[in-house]
Known about the structure:
- The protein has a single domain, classed as P-loop containing nucleotide triphosphate hydrolases (Rossmann fold), CATH 3.40.50.300.
- Helix content is 36%, strand content 29%.
- It contains 7 helices and 10 strands.
- The protein has helices at residues 46-53, 76-86, 102-113, 117-130, 146-158, 176-193, 204-209; strands at residues 2-13, 20-31, 35-39, 61-66, 69-70, 87-91, 164-168, 196-201, 212-217, 220-226.
Amino acid sequence: MTVVKAENVVKDYGLKEQTVHALRGVNLEFQSGEFSAIAGPSGSGKSTFLHLVGCLDTITSGDIIVGGSNTAKMTRKQLALLRRHSIGFIFQAYNLIPVLSVEENVSFPLTLMGVGKKEIKERTAKVLRDVGLEDMAKRRPKEMSGGQQQRVAIARALVKKPALILADEPTANLDSKIGREILELMLELNKSEGTTFIFSTHDQMVMDYARRLVRIRDGQIESDDLK
């Protein structure tokens, strides 16, 4: 089943006199259960593509279809609902809420979705077990290492049971040992839950783990290889 379909996607930034062409007619499809990476140098358009798929930004022209919904034709409210219910995000900066505990950070998306308290408790407890943080539920982010905080971010993305998780440079702030542990965890969850993962990265280790590697340069697809 196709989870993401991008058709002739163009993204420009700036004014006419100083336009930056971030994406130049990108066509890509991702199927359910993929563990894929989009790689390229800084400014290549890889993070821009993920932000567009995740409804964090809007395209200049073209279409992006996520889970059967054409995001180019949706209102802001509809995009927010799609983002809230169907897409999980993992960022290099973790983006945890510092005043909340681990379990509060993880359960927060479920609260926004209107899930009942009992189900929130059960789903939060399960996902914390899945990422090996059940004993740290009451800690604050500042009391944790970078690798542990990234595990919290993964748990927060997974707790919604999304069909798609977008990971933007998830290993950028981690040393190679912890980065490998994080990738092993995500690959294990991909296999056990069937969740589709799409990474943007310039980390060779992430590229090595990916089962499909898309290379992008100057806003255009350079290569697309299955392993």
